[in-house]
Write a structure and sequence with these properties.
Layout lengths: L10 E4 L5 E6 L5 H10 L3 H8 L6 H9 L7 E7 L6 E10 L2 E11 L8 H15 L4 E7 L3 H10 L2 E7 L2 E7 L5 H23 L3 E5 L8 H11 L5 E5 L5 E2 L2 E2 L13 E4 L3 H14 L3 E4 L6 H13 L3 E3 L5 E4 L6 E4 L7 E8 L2 H14 L3 E6 L8 H10 L5 E5 L6 H11 L5 E4 L14 H5 L2 H12 L2 E3 L2 H13 L9 E5 L2 H13 L9 H10 L10 E2 L6 H14 L4 E6 L10 H4 L1 H5 L8 E5 L6 E5 L5 E5 L2 H19 L13 H14 L4 E2 L2 H10 L8 E3 L2 H11 L7 E7 L12 E5 L2 H15 L5 E6 L5 E10 L3 E8 L4 H4 L2 E5 L4 H8 L5 H4 L10 H17 L3 E11 L4 E3 L2 E5 L24
InterPro entries: Acyl_CoA_acyltransferase, ATP_grasp_subdomain_1, CoA-bd, GNAT_dom, Ligase_CoA_dom, NAD(P)-bd_dom_sf, Succ_CoA_lig_flav_dom, Succinyl-CoA_synth-like
Organism: Streptacidiphilus pinicola
Keywords: Transferase
Length: about 900
């Protein structure tokens, strides 16, 4: 059992008002602070509520109890103000003597820190620590008039029961860190705190620029000019100890000399000065920093982040371009790109400065304005996750565009993105796809879990539109920003004024997973009536070069309103026929009408120089026009994926009744106690672990010795197909069997079994550790299901075609654990071999309900056990009424992955030679 001394040491987290506190276990050195908190910093009324009366000895006795040596079943945490180190709140729990799964809880907060979320944050961290000690229920006794405590437990998100007795109430809270209501409540509190902390950064009323040079062309000087001439509505204060004025602005020698306290400071100072200037900003009361400086050492970086945490400052950068806020009430352009961002509805966050410049210039050329632009740089603090939460509520952002080279907390990001993507498209450039996969991976599952597969699983589950380039991102953004989403069928009508380009456009649609169906007869007849003689109306529709512009528009309208297709692609080439000299002129009647119809419309103009641009309509709406059909089809396909994702019901994790996670965790811990470096579990341990989660493993007997193998074969032959058994040789670290001659199918006759065993003994010699005997199974559809643990993204569940042809077919899909019902349904229907699951030709369908249950249980096991490095269930033999795994391997490692949903800020590693 974990003791108080083994509780995770220190975390920094945001309170409801955006300020930072430090959460850590209490120690004997905190004795006086604990006593002072209870005696002097809590009013008599709050002491009464805490101790059920007033007692002069209670504060001292509480301090004595909380500072006793570490012991099993006891957890005591404190919240500290980072700068002064002052204790502002404590929480404790200790298990009952007769039931170590239940613990009594108490919490206290200093009067001047009430209503800031201290108690709730402490209890969240206590819940995490208590679950690590196998505590399942927290008990809190409270006076009936302690309304604040009742509200804390009501809002906590845990299932609670209350037992009333006169003026007292006993509250029982069932600890389930994975329950949807609890995670939703934690996420909502974290989001509110994030938003509060970002307000000084994204809605500042005063800005100081530190490190402004008098020399034109330098970063600080250029940025000051952009802020000044960009329409910033607040106070702007340049700081330079050697200048009286810069560009007509009064310059101040230091932060202390400023006439007020800036909410935001932009730092353009040398790397060796950054940490000291950040500390000065914190002492001055600054609440947010943008650090443009690059080249910070690890020591300088650590000191910078410590200063930010100590003074509750949010940090963008270092090594960034800056930020821009186009809200007319702010008008801040604090970045040194070539042009000022136009106001609009796209929230943009990038890590790479070069990508940021390129993306902003392309958006500017296209005419998509931004709500906020944030260059994250090295991303020490503020992340894409923070900005998504801000844009979700800012009332201006309708489209989020991200370029993220890394994920600090992918599972938290995924959870946030799933929610935000319901209200706005989130687009990203999928960077780093060329990274080589896990060449040294042992199992089929781990070999499949490449970084690309893992990242794509995150994007797919979260509803993020992942593009392969900045150009594709901009092309897709043009469509999503201007047109309605298509329906989920993916059907497209192609209309052209030249048959050849229509055929190419239809091919492009097919290439990207869209369907170009033959049009219904009544619709084709209607088009024939509209179009010139000789037009083709099957789809693609060839209106011919003689078609007047008005006729093309009428055809587009007829198709968009027909319901026969979900999108219309209009492809035009300039011709010598008709009055229009360019393709755009031919669209004049189209632009005279509404730009948004009931279904999306996009144009392909072959004489267009720009890759994508907008055609402005009379009603103020816009139609995207592409220079080639491939770009247009790709954008439509991305819109289709978003439409299908939105059509999926929001679902929670599928339940796995009967799972025994505590028993499984103990089994793994015992193994790691005997094998500190981890390793592949022996077959009996694999069977026990899978049984903890109800995963269907074939009956088997583990044998060591020839006679025991013969006896096992006699027993298992009764259930084996054709009375046959399967013998599998095993030795420590063994991965594959069939290619090494370590698997034999034989009759259960004693002589045959002995011969097989002796062949193993002769072939493998002293390596042979034992033999696993199984009844031979009837044939069925062979599938693979497994887990690979990613050190950053967490556990990935892989599913696909299995058996000895698994690698040959390479037909797999993957999702991050735990799995929702929607995730599982998508996995079952996204394989090339999916038709086999539903019955194909003479092959019966598999038991889909049981297969869904297997994936859910595997996902739950992966989420529960961070030590689970690899698990490979291959093959799963699936029939219409049964599913059984005939071969399973599990590898564990000594690893504790932090809870991705526990509220805490990112913490950089300590600088060399510095204390934690």
């Amino acid at each position: 059992m974990v003791t108080q001394s083994e509780v995770p040491r220190t975390a920094e987290a945001l309170l409801a008002d955006g300020t930072v506190v430090t959460i850590r276990p209490l120690t004997p050195g905190d004795h006086d602070a604990i006593a002072d908190l209870h005696a002097r910093r809590m009013s008599p009324e709050n002491q009464r509520l805490r101790f059920f009366g007033i007692s002069r000895r209670a504060p001292e006795l509480t301090a004595d109890r909380l500072c006793t040596p570490p012991r099993p079943g006891f957890v005591a945490l404190g919240a500290f103000e980072p700068d002064s180190g002052q204790l502002v709140g404590v929480v404790e729990c200790e298990t009952e003597a007769d039931d170590p799964s239940r613990a009594e809880l108490a919490v206290a907060v200093a009067d001047d820190w009430h209503h800031r979320g201290v108690a709730t944050l402490l209890i969240e961290h206590l819940v995490h620590a208590a679950r690590a000690q196998d505590i399942h229920v927290l008990l809190a006794d409270a006076l009936a008039d302690n309304h604040a405590m009742h509200k804390v437990f009501t809002d906590l998100g845990l299932a609670t029961n209350r037992h009333w007795a006169d003026a007292q109430v006993r509250i029982e809270a069932v600890l389930d860190e994975t329950s949807t209501p609890y995670l939703d409540a934690v996420e909502a509190r974290g989001s509110r705190a994030d938003i509060a902390s970002l307000r000084p950064l994204l809605r500042p009323r005063s800005v100081a620029v530190v490190g402004v040079s008098r020399r034109p062309g330098t970063v600080g000087h250029s940025l000051l000019l952009k802020i000044r001439h960009g329409g910033f509505t607040g106070s702007l204060w340049p700081v330079n100890p050697h200048a009286g004025q810069i560009d007509g602005l009064l310059c101040f020698p230091s932060l202390d000399a400023l006439p007020g306290t800036p909410q935001l400071a932009v730092l353009a100072v040398p790397a060796n000065q950054v940490a000291a200037v950040a500390e000065e900003c914190g002492q001055r009361g600054v609440r947010a920093l943008v650090v443009l400086t690059s080249g910070l050492s690890r020591t300088q970086s650590t000191r910078l982040l410590r200063a930010c945490r100590r003074h509750s400052m949010r940090l963008v950068g270092p090594n960034c371009l800056g930020l821009a806020v186009t809200d007319p009430e702010v008008g801040l352009d604090a970045e040194f790109g070539r042009t000022a961002p136009k106001p609009g509805a796209a929230g943009v966050a990038v890590q790479s400065g070069g990508v940021g410049i390129a993306l902003m210039e392309q958006l500017d050329a296209l005419g998509i304005g931004v709500s906020d632009f944030v260059s994250l740089g090295d991303k020490y603090d503020v992340s894409g996750n923070d900005l998504l939460q801000w844009w979700e509520q800012d009332g201006r952002t309708r489209l989020a565009l991200l370029h993220l080279e890394s994920f600090g907390n992918p599972r938290a990001f995924s959870r946030t993105a799933r929610r935000v993507a319901r209200s706005m498209p989130i687009l990203t450039v999928d960077a780093g796809r060329s990274v080589a996969g896990r060449r040294g991976a042992a199992s089929h599952t781990a070999a499949a879990a490449t970084p690309t597969v893992t990242r794509q699983a995150l994007f797919t589950q979260a509803g993020i539109t992942a593009t392969h380039s900045i150009a594709e991102l901009v092309e897709t953004a043009a469509l999503l920003d201007s047109q309605p989403l298509p329906g989920i069928t993916g059907t497209v009508a192609v209309v052209s004024n030249a048959g050849g380009i229509g055929v190419l456009a239809a091919d492009a649609c097919t290439d990207h997973g869209l369907t170009v169906p033959e049009l219904p007869a009544p619709l084709a007849l209607r088009l024939a009536e509209l179009l010139p003689e000789g037009a083709a109306t099957a789809n693609p529709v060839d209106a011919t070069a003689a078609a007047p512009a008005e006729t093309l528009v009428a055809a587009v309208d007829a198709l968009a309103e027909s319901g026969a297709v979900e999108a219309v692609l209009l492809c035009l080439a300039p011709t010598a026929l008709g009055a229009a000299r360019t393709a755009e002129e031919a669209l004049a009647p189209l632009l005279a009408g509404p730009g948004r119809r009931t279904r999306p419309v996009a144009a392909v103009l072959l004489d267009q120089r720009e890759p994508v641009r907008f055609l402005d309509c009379a009603d103020g709406s816009r139609i995207p026009a592409y220079a080639d059909a491939q770009s247009a089809a790709r954008a439509l396909a991305q819109a289709l994926r978003r439409s299908r994702w939105l059509a999926q019901p929001m679902s929670s994790e599928r339940e796995t009744p009967g799972s025994r996670p505590t028993e499984a965790a103990a089994l793994v811990e015992r193994y790691l106690g005997q094998h500190p470096d981890g390793g592949w579990l022996e077959p009996p341990l694999v069977a026990r672990l899978l049984d903890c989660y109800g995963l269907p493993l074939v009956d088997a007997i583990w044998c060591q010795g020839e006679d025991s193998v013969v006896e096992a074969a006699r027993v298992l032959a009764r259930t084996g197909e054709g009375g046959e058994v399967v013998l599998k040789a095993h030795w420590p670290g063994q991965i594959h069997k069939s290619g090494l001659g370590a698997l034999r199918v034989t009759s259960a006759e004693d002589e045959q079994v002995r011969a097989a065993y002796r062949a193993f003994a002769a072939r493998f010699g002293e390596r042979l550790d034992g033999v696993l005997v199984q009844p031979r199974q009837a044939t069925g559809t062979e599938l693979l299901a497994g887990v690979a643990q990613d050190p950053v993204f967490g556990p990935l569940v892989v599913f696909g075609a299995g058996g000895t042809t698994a690698d040959l077919l390479d037909d797999r899909t993957a999702r991050l654990a735990p799995l929702t019902g929607t995730d599982i349904s998508a996995m079952l229907t996204s394989l090339r071999t999916t038709p086999l699951l539903f019955g194909y030709r003479d092959r019966p369908p598999v038991d889909l309900e049981r297969l869904e249950d297997v994936l859910a249980r595997l996902g739950r096991m992966a989420a529960d056990l961070p030590q689970l490095a690899e698990a490979d269930l291959n093959p799963l033999i699936c029939g219409p009424h049964s599913i059984v795994c005939v071969d399973a391997r599990v590898r564990v490692e000594p690893r504790r992955i932090p809870d991705p949903y526990l509220r805490r800020l990112r913490r950089l590693p300590d600088a060399p030679g510095e204390p934690a």
